[in-house]
Amino acid sequence: MSMQRAKAHLEKKGYLDRVIEPAVETATVEQAAAALGCEPAHIAKSMSFYGADDAESILIVTAGDCRVDNHKFKETFHYKPRMIAADEVEARIGHAPGGVCAFGINPGVKVYCDVSLQRFDTVYPAAGNAHSGVRLSCAELFDACDAAGWVDVCKGWA
Question: For the chain, how big is the Rg over CA atoms in Å?
Fold first, then answer.
């Protein structure tokens, strides 16, 4: 069901032909990179956070080789980052861990893309399950996930 929602969203945006469904698992950055034939940094990982109040949820799509910097996050969003508990991710975002992506998500979830992605011509986010990826440029990713904006909240990549 989750992948069907992601695919329906990608079809509306004109990117359905970019979906890749390898036979092997793509749940982690390393698995996805091996399955999709790219460097781990090119994997666009979607990280789930509670919003400013616990009723809200946000996704930040980052490059596969970086981590969210708590200080940068707080400067950008004006609250301390708290990742959504694994057992709550699917209910809050619309996709289960291992296949979380910014396509076909629950209404009200805001998506931001981190500038760590902009150094690549091509990135590979998941497509709703742990056996998928989508080949997109950064501009296409931003469009496909209806991002609210570009943010600079990561460390470890520059």
Answer: 14
Q: CA 146, 152, 154, 158 torsion: positive or negative?
A: positive
Side-chain-side CA neighbours of 96 within 13 Å: the count stands at 9
Q: If we measure between CA atoms, which residue out of 55, 54, 32, 56 comes closest to residue 43?
A: 32
Report residue 24 as tokens: 């092997």
Residue-wise pLDDT for 121-149, tens only, equals 999 999 999 999 999 999 999 999 999 99
* pLDDT value, residue 2: 85
Fold classified for 2-155? YbaK protein (3.90.960)
Mean pLDDT of all residues belonging to the chain: 96
Across-strand partners of 134?
Answer: 19
Spatial separation of the C-alpha atoms in residues 36 and 121, rounded to whole Å: 15
Q: Are 46 and 126 in contact (CB under 8 A)?
A: yes
How much is the average pLDDT of 101-125?
Answer: 97
What value, to the nearest 5°, has the Cα angle with vertex 28 and ends 148 and 132?
Answer: 70
Residue 42, pLDDT above cutoff 90: yes
